[in-house]
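Please go through this chain and its backbone structure tokens and walk me through the local backbone shapes. Keep your notes short.
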Amino acid sequence: MSSAQKTVHLTVTVLGTGTMGQGIAQIAAQSGHTTRLFDAAEGRAQAAVKSIAEQLEKLVGKGKITGDLRAQTLNRLSAATAARDACAGADVVIEAVPEDMSLKVEVLKPLLDVLAPQALVGTNTSSLSITELGARLGVPDRTIGLHFFNPPPVMELVEVVRGLATSEETVTRAIDFARGLGKTPIIVRDVPGFATSRLGVILGAEAMRMLETGVASAQDIDRGMELGYRHPMGPLKLTDLVGLDVRLAILEHLQREIGDQFRPPAILRTMVRAGKLGKKSGEGFYRWIDGQPVAK
């Protein structure tokens, strides 16, 4: 990508302010884009901006960014109280709401008419069909999967997923956008689970089955993958970070679409029913104290 492409400043709207939404908004603003956050829950977008400010302050303290970059990033970042205001004239919209196709359509469809005419309509889904989403929205040529990884400010990869009717221009623009954020994109065809989710959840599911049959402790299973295979984080710790409910929903979807090799382990269903969802609930395969995992 040319230096001219890298310096293009866009208006980016992120819908949803969970961990992924916050992280995507942070890197968009940090990369020079005017960035707007919106969440349907009152006060969540404002709280997200405050949280991003705190994260940036930590980066300044560690010497990873300058105070000037922190100030510039926050100047580009805003919280909207209305979805249509957040999307007005946006060049890129990225939804980061829960993994439910009907919800994603419900969130995006009423906003399409206020976007810039050729805006990229992005979804951070890790498994749902880009082709179906584009068809239901009525803009299949501009709908694209932009699957970031948790946490977005740290993880280098973005999975760019093309639907059956996604245009070449949209794919090219999505790749340029991802590279402009300092990410490395891979292009994936629209199949259930894409590339990374299929591989990631099957590894995580087998680790859960090993845990429930007493092969080893959660900590030792994770340590085996971290030290033996150079994974930066073991599959059970990663499941805690992503959210056990999120992993369950992906496995259920892939089981329906592909087959029983993706059948969710019993231990996963039991923990989700018990409200043990991982880091966000304070307990999953680990206990989470002050944001850090502690072996149970």
About this structure: The domain at 197-284 is CATH 1.10.1040.10 (N-(1-d-carboxylethyl)-l-norvaline Dehydrogenase; domain 2). The longest strand covers residues 143-148. The chain has two domains: 3-189, 197-284.
